């Protein structure tokens, strides 16, 4: 197996006053993957990105990138890292092309107008190249942020809430852009509140809460391992208790006996089979139902469940 492009061990950040923003985080990022880091506000996502990008001084642990320790070769490594921050940071009176070209120069890269044109065209910004940034829409300003981050051709790109505040159409357009970056060999780490973003794009997903990394797994494996089936049977008439034949299944009565709820399975199809068995058992017991609502867990369900369980354990 190839060495990871980024390897974080025991990463801890304690702010003055005792707030532990990162708590012994271990994380390896594979070259060429799209990795989504999910977590609520204040979970530590932005602090982790800041630590890798040299904006946050860590309290303990190590960060290796491109095979070297960042503590020893930060400036060289930083030239190979791109960052799209949450906040819009521009000279608002500058033009799009000049700002993006300036960003390339900041990282020691020689001027290359053809490359800047390529980046701007890929983000549908070439027609806006002579516009002052202040005149652009919010979504276009966010595209300029991505262009600035790509101007020096980074191998590792951090996207911190890249589509926050943009409309659904623009968000999907950005997903396509990010996917094309992977095709070019760029490794992408994104944080997001839009869990469908991770479900759509990520190869692997990590869940962080209160500075602790709760879980890292292949997206499909996570959904298979932690996925659940939920089903709600609306009964034709309320019942006061369950027949013996249903007690082997994870079912409960709700709404004064008018709804039978099932929650079980393991993402392998077991849940669907058990829902069918519950339906058969209901009919055999003479209990009719007028409606059945069934769904499989989404990544969002898994995320919420993990964070809630973590909160209960704390």
Automatic annotation (TrEMBL):
Q: Does the keyword ATP-binding apply?
A: yes
Q: Which GO MF term does the entry hold, naming one?
A: ATP binding
Q: Please verify whether the record's keywords include Chloroplast.
A: no
PANTHER family given in the database record:
ABC TRANSPORTER ATP-BINDING PROTEIN
* UniProt xrefs under Pfam families: ABC_tran (PF00005)
What name is this protein filed under?
Answer: ATP-binding cassette domain-containing protein
Question: What InterPro entries has UniProt attached to this entry?
Answer: AAA+_ATPase, ABC_transporter-like_ATP-bd, ABC_transporter-like_CS, ABC_transporter_ATP-binding, P-loop_NTPase
Where is the ABC transporter domain positioned along the sequence?
Answer: 6-235
Keywords of this entry: ATP-binding, Nucleotide-binding, Transport
Q: Where is the signal peptide?
A: none
What is the species listed in this Swiss-Prot or TrEMBL entry?
A: Pelagerythrobacter marinus
């Amino acid at each position: 197996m190839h060495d990871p492009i980024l390897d974080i061990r025991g990463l801890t950040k304690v702010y003055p006053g005792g707030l532990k923003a990162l708590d012994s985080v271990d994380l390896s990022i594979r070259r060429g993957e799209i990795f989504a880091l999910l977590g609520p506000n204040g979970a530590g996502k932005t602090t982790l990105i800041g630590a890798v990008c040299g904006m946050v001084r860590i309290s303990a642990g190590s960060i290796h990138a491109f095979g070297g320790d960042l503590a020893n070769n930060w400036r060289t490594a930083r030239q190979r890292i791109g960052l799209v921050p949450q906040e819009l940071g521009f000279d608002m009176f500058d033009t799009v092309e000049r700002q993006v070209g300036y960003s390339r120069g900041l990282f020691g890269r020689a001027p290359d107008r053809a490359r800047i044109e390529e980046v701007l065209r890929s983000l549908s910004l070439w027609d806006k190249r002579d516009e002052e940034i202040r005149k652009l829409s919010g979504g276009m300003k966010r595209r300029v942020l991505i262009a600035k981050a790509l101007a020096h051709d980074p191998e590792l790109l951090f996207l911190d809430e890249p589509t926050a505040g943009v409309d659904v159409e623009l968000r999907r357009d950005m997903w396509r852009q990010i996917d094309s970056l992977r095709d070019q060999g760029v490794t992408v780490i994104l944080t997001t509140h839009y869990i469908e973003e991770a479900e759509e794009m990520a190869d692997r997903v990590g869940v962080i809460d209160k500075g602790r990394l709760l879980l890292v797994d292949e997206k499909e494996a996570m959904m298979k391992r932690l996925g659940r089936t939920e089903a709600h049977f609306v009964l034709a008439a309320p019942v006061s208790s369950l027949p013996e034949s249903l007690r082997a299944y994870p079912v409960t009565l709700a709404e004064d006996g008018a709804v039978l709820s099932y929650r079980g399975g393991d993402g392998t199809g077991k849940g669907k089979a058990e829902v069918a068995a519950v339906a058969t058992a209901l009919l055999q017991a003479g209990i009719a139902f007028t409606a059945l609502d069934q769904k499989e867990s989404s990544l969002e369900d898994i995320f919420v469940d993990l964070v809630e369980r973590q909160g209960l354990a704390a």
